Amino acid sequence: MKQSGYKVLMREILGICFFPTATWRRLANQPVKAIKCRLLTVLIMAAVPPLSFYFGTTHYGWEAGDHIVKITPDSAIPLMVLFYLALVSAVVVIGAMAHWMSKTYNAEDSYPIKGMVMIGYACMPIFVAGICALRPIWWLDIMIATLICCYTIRLIYIGVPILMNVPEDRGTLNTSALFAVALVYAVAVLVATVILWEYVALPVFIDG
């Protein structure tokens, strides 16, 4: 990709974080092929939180009382991979539901990739904020994650009517239903995390 292409992508990432309405409208005016190319950007950006988590927990660790706790690199790798798969599957599953629901709510035109790109771009603030995991401070990371997730919900409410071509009067209902699906998915991920943590990817803790 040419350098100008990278500049466009960076402008879109910053735009979706700070100027969401204008950015959604620019994306909505892109041809189908151009929107499909944005999915690669989503897949790359989704790797930021898992990689940050890996380096943060294995190299810096976090305070636990009067000592530093880390995770061994070998046991952190499966966690990192599962973390990435959880993020990508969220984009795919919720994006596919966004496409299906947009048809239910009389979207003029839509296709699955557009829904996935819409959810992926709405999650850009989460991906960018994942850099905070490079230096784990759990109370701060949880607070930032909560605020960023709330902002992501707002981005979806703005983006669905514009990018998915849902009539304005049905956009709120569509997004609310999509949010309910996201909550169900989040619960499923939490249950899967507990199971995988116990039987598949049990982390090994060491003192730093």
Most strands sheet: 3 strands, antiparallel
Structural class: mainly alpha
The number of E-state strands comes to: 3
Percent helix among the residues?
A: over 70%
Distance between the termini: 41 Å
Strands ordered across the widest β-sheet: 1-2-3
Report the mean per-residue pLDDT as an integer. 86
- The radius of gyration over CA amounts to 18 Å
Helical element count?
9
Structure characteristics:
208 residues, mainly alpha, 3-stranded antiparallel β-sheet
Q: Explain this structure to me?
A:
This protein is mostly helical and 208 residues long. The chain has one domain (3-207). The protein is built from nine helices and three strands. Strands 1-2-3 form a three-stranded antiparallel beta sheet. Helix 3 (32-45) packs across helix 6 and helix 8 (138-163) packs antiparallel against helix 9 (168-199). The longest helix is centred in the middle third of the chain and has 32 residues, at 73-104. The model has no long low-confidence stretch (mean pLDDT 86).
Write the layout of secondary structure elements.
Elements (H helix, E strand, L loop, with lengths): L2 H16 L1 H9 L3 H14 L2 H13 L1 E3 L2 E5 L1 H32 L7 H11 L1 H6 L8 H26 L4 H32 L5 E3 L1
Antiparallel strand pairs: 1-2, 2-3
Helix pairs in contact: 1-2, 2-8, 3-6, 4-5, 5-6, 5-9, 6-8, 8-9
Summarize this structure briefly:
The chain has 208 residues and is mostly helical. The chain is 76% helix and 5% strand.
